[in-house]
């Protein structure tokens, strides 16, 4: 028994490796005895051993199927998080001057509850996660500028909840200061209870504080920061406090190779789930059943969850842009508009497709669908450096106006009046930024020029309500939107969601 157990442990250790800390080993406990293995598996040199400890998030030791050695979160190495923090400090100094000393304070999300003792699934604040990789609530990241020739020089301190056996019995393991230090690679970790004492050193006038106190992510911790630092500081100095979110969002706009790989995986998972939902469709299926099918297929393919409440809107309900009730039956002859995407290890996808629940477009449905698809293809091709999303939006409105005239939905309108009519039939923008959130980096202007590494959506639509007496009867009650996710490159754009069916014949063959 001992021999077979030993060989099994050796195989596991050889595949997964050890924690990247000195003297780390694995303790195997089976029944009444213990077996020790050193890194060299030498029987002649016994060593001290310890168990592999679970932290507050997956690690390469506890979840080797999710996290590889050197990664803080799936797909993102410790060094990349360090580089992000350095880039942020460089951007601050470049913007505000190198003479002042700078301290950045970024707060995590709290746990939120849907009822007493019933928490929502925890989702970390994206700015905090982007800079630290730490997925536990009630934490604070503090970055201090350091003297030196490089503007990126800084000291990173992570303040985290201390370990608590009573709470861990209910909520699961916490990383604590030692686990957080080993996991994230910051310079030091402290207990979150010491936040006030730690911040006292930054009250003097030579420090410029960067902190989003007007948009509190975590109300309790933000009040604690303001009480211990900002309020006394107001009385002692005239130094200003600057918001930091805009600088972090500017960094998040341009994706690294690691981030693009995660977003491509999210897109592939979602595209396959859409194809499965199309095959699953039939007259009489409920919107809730289609939502369940999408959720199931995404999770079975490795997604964490759906990135947002999906729109599954049959018939005229597609003309309600954010319809998420998803509680009606879809009748024969109706289209269904589905806007959904998965979240894959912190990065999201956003796809919209519209298809006939019976598997075959009627002629008016096909005409309107082909019009939207043609507009989308033109707009996709415009997703290039030096072009802005607002410019693409203007192009979309002009094209919608022309298509509405071609289909006889609009008559005797030209120029500005036609553009205003197009806005009525498509009351939303063509695009938004995409990344860690669905409507990512919301403070970034859509009038800015696109850059390589950005990911955006392209989602034109035409919506004709069933009571629109100005439209031909055959088009009333039809709402169509087609949306893809696009990576901006130096050359042609890369459609991350290219595997999701959207051609008329492709959809009909899939559903046949």
Characterization of this structure:
It is a single chain. The protein is an alpha+beta fold and 512 residues long. It has 14 helices and 23 strands. It has helices at residues 2-16, 78-96, 126-132, 165-171, 176-184, 195-199, 219-236, 245-253, 257-280, 287-300, 363-381, 389-406, 415-425, 504-511, and strands at 26-30, 33-37, 71-73, 76-77, 101-107, 113-115, 118-119, 140-145, 154-160, 188-191, 207-210, 241-242, 305-306, 311-314, 335-340, 342-344, 347-348, 351-356, 455-458, 461-464, 478-481, 484-487, 494-495. The strands form eight sheets. It has a six-stranded mixed beta sheet with strand order 10-9-8-5-11-12, with helices on both faces. It has a three-stranded antiparallel beta sheet with strand order 13-16-17. A hairpin with a 2-residue loop joins β1 and β2 (33-37). α9 packs across α10, α11 (363-381) runs antiparallel to α12 (389-406) and α12 packs across α13. The model is unreliable at 1-44 (pLDDT under 50).
């Amino acid at each position: 028994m001992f021999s077979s157990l030993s060989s099994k442990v050796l195989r596991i250790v050889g595949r997964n490796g050890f924690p990247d800390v000195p003297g780390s080993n694995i303790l195997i406990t089976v029944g009444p005895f213990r077996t020790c293995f050193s890194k060299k598996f030498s029987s002649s040199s016994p060593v001290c051993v310890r168990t592999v400890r679970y932290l507050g998030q997956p690690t390469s030791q506890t979840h080797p199927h999710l996290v590889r050695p050197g990664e803080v979160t799936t797909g993102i190495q410790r060094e990349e998080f360090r580089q992000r923090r350095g880039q942020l400090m460089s951007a601050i100094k470049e913007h505000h001057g190198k003479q002042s000393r700078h301290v950045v304070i970024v707060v995590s999300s709290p746990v939120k509850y849907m009822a007493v003792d019933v928490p929502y699934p925890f989702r970390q604040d994206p700015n905090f996660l982007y800079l630290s990789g730490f997925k536990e609530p009630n934490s604070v990241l503090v970055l201090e500028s350091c003297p030196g020739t490089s503007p990126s020089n800084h000291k990173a301190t992570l303040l985290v909840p201390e370990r608590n056996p009573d709470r861990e019995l209910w909520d699961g393991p916490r990383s604590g200061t030692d686990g957080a230090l080993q996991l994230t690679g910051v310079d030091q970790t402290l207990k979150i209870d010491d936040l006030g004492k730690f911040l006292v050193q930054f009250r003097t006038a030579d420090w410029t504080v960067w902190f989003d106190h007007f948009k509190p992510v975590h109300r309790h911790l933000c009040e604690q920061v303001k009480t211990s630092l900002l309020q006394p500081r107001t009385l002692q100095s005239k130094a200003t406090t600057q918001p930091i979110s805009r600088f972090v969002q500017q960094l998040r706009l341009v994706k690294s190779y690691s981030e693009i790989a995660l977003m491509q995986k999210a897109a592939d998972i979602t595209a396959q789930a859409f194809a499965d939902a199309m095959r699953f469709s039939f007259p009489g299926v409920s919107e809730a059943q289609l939502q369940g099918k999408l959720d199931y297929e995404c999770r079975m393919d490795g997604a964490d969850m759906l990135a947002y409440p999906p729109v599954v809107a049959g018939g005229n309900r597609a003309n309600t842009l954010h319809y998420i009730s998803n509680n009606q039956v879809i009748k024969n002859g109706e289209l269904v508009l589905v806007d959904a995407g998965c979240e894959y290890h912190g990065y999201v996808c956003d796809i919209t497709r519209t298809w006939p629940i019976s598997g075959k477009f009627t002629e008016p449905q096909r005409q309107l669908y082909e019009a939207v698809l043609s507009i989308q293809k033109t707009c996709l091709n415009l997703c290039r450096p030096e072009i802005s999303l607002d410019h693409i939006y203007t192009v979309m409105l002009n094209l919608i106006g022309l298509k509405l005239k071609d289909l006889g939905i609009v008559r005797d309108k030209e120029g500005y009046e036609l553009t205003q009519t197009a806005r009525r039939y498509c009351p939303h923008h063509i695009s938004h930024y995409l990344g860690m959130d669905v409507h990512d980096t919301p403070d970034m202007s859509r009038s800015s020029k696109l850059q390589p590494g950005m990911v955006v959506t392209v989602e034109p639509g035409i919506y004709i309500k069933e009571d629109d007496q100005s439209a031909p009867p055959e088009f009333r009650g039809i709402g169509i939107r087609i949306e893809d996710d696009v990576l901006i490159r130096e050359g042609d754009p890369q459609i991350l969601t290219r595997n999701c069916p959207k051609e008329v014949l492709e959809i009909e063959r899939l559903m046949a």
